[in-house]
What we know:
Layout: E1 21-22, E2 26-34, E3 38-45, E4 50-57, H1 65-79, E5 89-95, E6 97-103, H2 110-117, H3 122-141, E7 154-156, E8 162-164, H4 169-174, H5 181-187, H6 193-196, H7 203-219, H8 229-238, H9 253-262, H10 274-283, H11 311-338, H12 343-366, E9 369-371, H13 380-389, E10 393-401, E11 410-414, E12 420-422, E13 426-434, E14 437-439, H14 448-456, E15 463-469, E16 479-483, E17 489-491, E18 495-501, E19 506-508, H15 517-526, E20 530-536, E21 547-550, E22 557-559, E23 563-569, E24 574-576, H16 585-594, E25 598-604, E26 608-609, E27 612-613, E28 620-624, E29 630-632, E30 636-642, H17 644-650
Parallel strand pairs: 10-13, 15-18, 20-23, 25-30
Antiparallel strand pairs: 1-2, 2-3, 3-4, 4-6, 5-6, 7-8, 9-12, 11-13, 14-17, 16-18, 19-22, 21-23, 24-29, 26-27, 28-30
Helix pairs in contact: 3-7, 3-10, 7-9, 9-10
Amino acid sequence: xxxxxxxxxxxxxxxxxxxxxxxxxxxxxxxxxxxxxxxxxxxxxxxxxxxxxxxxxxxxxxxxxxxxxxxxxxxxxxxxxxxxxxxxxxxxxxxxxxxxxxxxxxxxxxxxxxxxxxxxxxxxxxxxxxxxxxxxxxxxxxxxxxxxxxxxxxxxxxxxxxxxxxxxxxxxxxxxxxxxxxxxxxxxxxxxxxxxxxxxxxxxxxxxxxxxxxxxxxxxxxxxxxxxxxxxxxxxxxxxxxxxxxxxxxxxxxxxxxxxxxxxxxxxxxxxxxxxxxxxxxxxxxxxxxxxxxxxxxxxxxxxxxxxxxxxxxxxxxxxxxxxxxxxxxxxxxxxxxxxxxxxxxxxxxxxxxxxxxxxxxxxxxxxxxxxxxxxxxxxxxxxxxxxxxxxxxxxxxxxxxxxxxxxxxxxxxxxxxxxxxxxxxxxxxxxxxxxxxxxxxxxxxxxxxxxxxxxxxxxxxxxxxxxxxxxxxxxxxxxxxxxxxxxxxxxxxxxxxxxxxxxxxxxxxxxxxxxxxxxxxxxxxxxxxxxxxxxxxxxxxxxxxxxxxxxxxxxxxxxxxxxxxxxxxxxxxxxxxxxxxxxxxxxxxxxxxxxxxxxxxxxxxxxxxxxxxxxxxxxxxxxxxxxxxxxxxxxxxxxxxxxxxxxxxx
Length: 651
């Protein structure tokens, strides 16, 4: 029974019902399917109003704490991968059962595509395998290895674009004791030999799986089938993947070599990275990719395509391989029976057959076996001389740009050095074109990381040297300049220098408190700072011109050219009252004003002694506070003096 439309999913309530709300956000609208690890639902994100796919892990995986920790880590790693051919991971959480929210791809998996089509022509194979290589190259650049590349994990979106799914989940599952057996069975056909032998997965592990995928896309059959998963794993660990042309005659020979190198038993003999595999794969299909045709799923009444591993398909493959050669061999006796009176022609035919047989016996049975020499780095002329000495010839398979190999030298060969080959055999070589010419892209004002990633990757592959300098106008981590400049045509793989901003230069504020004003200003200037000077009285620094305070503390790091407010002493705030008694009243006022004291004048008549008055006009007769008393700037001082006006007023 489905829950009510607004019912929140309750942890522990069993399988999620259609209509339930997961994580308070994702409404389950349909169950898409289930695998060994999880059940997948179509859901609607009610927060962002979009359809998504939700993968809910099975209960037997939900109670292992170490698995859950790995699950969350790998989900975050997968979410960091942004590429048009990687299924986006939007969210992850736990409602007792862990879940991942992913991009909903409305299209079949490559497994379903192969079930409907049987196999793909090389151009359509390239339309799937090429972008898959590009997606994995991006993942590997971010130190993420898929570990479970197989047709079931590649979806074909509308328009034929492939999208790689399930990054990192295989790693989390592989490390738990609860891994479902079905996961191993589903992946063992694409398992690299080193994994079977117990080694860690690397980017070349993914490359091996892609090589097997290419074989399966071209042939419609498993590369090394066997009766049990263990037997399949053993075959992959011990046997080379057969060439696709063994089963499909129209597969170009260069594709055989791509599959052979990508699936080499020893990882070191595979391509150096996914980008190199992608390049070789595209060169092996000269016409380029063509859109993938995705037929509708077959109904019960439709014609059923025989699986590629069935005996009927094996028989068809053998018939196709012999092809016209077998037909020609049957036609010759028929013509002889229609012309019994032409013994001469019969004799000639028999002689030709005998000669051909003898040549074949010589070439394939009696001719001495040689070991193919190592031609790596040799020029074409040297290759011809070396092979001619052993009765072999060279065939130019392709020319390929290479960052370090000089133009005209051998990059790769087939068969590999040391392989047995009889006299008269052909060795295919790939010759370097030298580095490709590229135009330096404009990376100025971009971030350092973006610039280095772009310039280090194909097609540029520059050796990037990063120099840093301060800038008053360019933000920290942004590119100021590149050398050579943008638009300059140079060889790929060369040297390129980036100048990256360290932001505004940071300087340390010196200690200037207590220094004379001039010394303080000089110290700030040497530290690439500016001084803004004000004045104040200070009892602590009574000496005139001494720095009393600075508004930015010493030792602090600030931007270059920062203005530091400096307060310079005007003298002490408190001091002893001077003695102005006996001074002319005007002079006393001026002296007190210079000390920022406010003088108040009180005029008095001279005292009268008998008929006489005693004293002089205009002099300070008394002061309050008295001389020697402590006063403060701006204090009031009362001065007393004799004046004629006061006497006249007294009458």
